[in-house]
Each structure stands twice: as C-alpha cells, then as structure tokens.
Specification:
By secondary structure, the chain is an alpha/beta fold. The chain has a single domain, classed as NAD(P)-binding Rossmann-like Domain (Rossmann fold, 3-Layer(aba) Sandwich). It is built from nine helices and nine strands. The strands form two sheets. It has a seven-stranded parallel sheet with strand order 3-2-1-4-5-6-9, with helices on both faces.
Length: 258
C-alpha cells in the first residue's frame, strides 16, 4: 500500500531534504510552501524520477486560519495521510523592544498555532493508519534566547507539546518525534535577518541534507526527542545543569551582533 506524507515548508532547507527522502522511498507527497513556482520545481524533480504522486498547496501558514484551510483542502482530496511533517518555521531577530509586533505574531502563528492545528486535524486518520508525526523544533527549545526571545519560546512550546502528545499516544500505533537541530544552512538565517548574530556570522553551519536525513530517520524509528550532532547534544546537556541565569547570559552574549 502506497503511503502519503504531508510536509510543510517543503521546498527549501531541511523540509526539502525530508521530502526528498520520502520521495526516494516511494512515498506520495503533499507539499506545502508559500511559493508555487518552487513547489512546481519539486514536482518536476521528483514525480517522474521516483514514480510518485505529488500534490501541492501554495499558502502562507503564518496567516491566521490558514492551517485550518489547508487541512480542509487536503481532506477534500479524500486520500488520508500517513505522515505529518510540521517543518515550516521562521525566526525574528533583535531585541524585543525593537522587533515588529506584526512579525512576532506571524511567527507565533507559524511556529505554534499551525503545527497544533495540523496535529489536531490529522490525528484521527493518523491513528487509523498507525501514522507518524515529525515536528521540527530546534535546540533553541531548551533555553531562553535573548535577541530571539519569542522564537526560542515558540520552539519550547513545540518541544513540550510534542513530547506530551507522544506520551498520550504511546501504544496507539502513532509516534511523535520532536527534531531539534542546531543552526543549519537552510535560508532560515537570511529570512530571520540574523546574519550579524555571533551565532551564525563566520560560522560553518550544518548542511541541510545531513540534518534533514537525520530527522527523517528519527521519525521512521519513532524516536521521541532527537538532537542531531554531538556538539548540539552537549549544549543541551550543559544547559540542564547550569543555573538558568548563567545560561541566559551566555545566550545573550552568543546571540548579540558580532
């Protein structure tokens, strides 16, 4: 039986690599992104090469109500999904007194509301099909993040929500994986306007291909919380034992403009 994966943020970066992994394994795709032209490129790239069916939906999931509308459109196709990958996300860089409230609220909608809505809407059919959920968070989920205060908070929500959902669904046949990569060369930094941050300026970032494959494999194995890369794992471990104030000060210094 051919399976189907719904993937948000599917045209670039980590989402593209996860979608490509599904395609190589012969899984039909429902790709979601803002740019229809980029979606069309993915269809041309994978449909004939892997002999799969690919549906696309161009929408901005940072707009209130868009996730519900997407769920309605996907459900109207009549074909249930087996995998849900909530990868779409965005950051806003800068001190909170200087950043745009409009941008912050759009980020919260995309990073928090959208994955919550899609999990809620598609969970019944995933439970019928022993499906899998992959929610892409970040190592930012494990500590406060000055200069990206609201972004770090959205990823903390996604980590805690997903881990709790995984516990609730234990034994149901559905697995929920929270994937928490570190900084990755994916275009995220450019969109977040954080090129000047010490977190990324002059740094060699992990490549999206290896990170995406790690997330895909973690989901297929039904892992609960996965942090790829030993340096990222060490970072998250250290934050558990240091005083919270010390961790916050360290992130403040590391995140400041170089």
């Amino acid at each position: 039986m051919t399976k189907t994966a719904l993937i948000t943020g599917a045209t670039t970066g980590i989402g593209r690599e996860i979608a490509a992994a599904f395609a190589r394994d012969g899984v039909n795709l429902i790709l979601v992104a803002r740019d229809q032209a980029a979606l069309n490129e993915r269809v041309l790239e994978w449909r004939d090469q892997f002999g799969i069916e690919i549906a696309t939906f161009a929408c901005d999931l940072a707009v209130p109500g868009a996730a519900d509308e997407l769920a309605d459109l996907v459900s109207a196709r009549g074909a249930p999904i087996d995998y849900l990958v909530n990868n779409a996300g965005v950051g806003v860089y800068g001190t909170f007194d200087q950043t745009s409230l409009r941008d912050e609220l759009a980020m919260i909608t995309l990073n928090v509301v959208t994955p919550t809505v899609l999990c809620k809407r598609f969970l019944p059919q995933l439970m019928q099909r022993n499906g899998k959920i992959l929610n892409v968070a970040s190592i930012a989920a494990f500590q406060p993040g000055p200069y990206m205060a609201a972004y770090y908070a959205t990823k903390a929500y996604l980590l805690n929500f997903s881990d709790a959902l995984a516990a609730e669904l234990a034994g149901s046949g559905v697995t929920v994986t929270t994937f928490c990569p570190g900084p990755t060369a994916s275009g995220f930094q450019l969109r977040a306007a954080m090129q000047a941050s010490r977190l990324v300026k002059g740094k060699t970032l992990a490549d999206a291909a290896s990170v995406g494959i790690a997330g895909y494999r973690a989901m297929q194995r039904g892992k609960r919380v996965v942090v790829p890369g030993w340096t990222n794992q060490l970072t998250t471990l250290i934050t558990k034992f240091l005083p919270r104030a010390a961790v916050t000060r360290a992130i403040y210094r590391m995140s400041a403009p170089a």
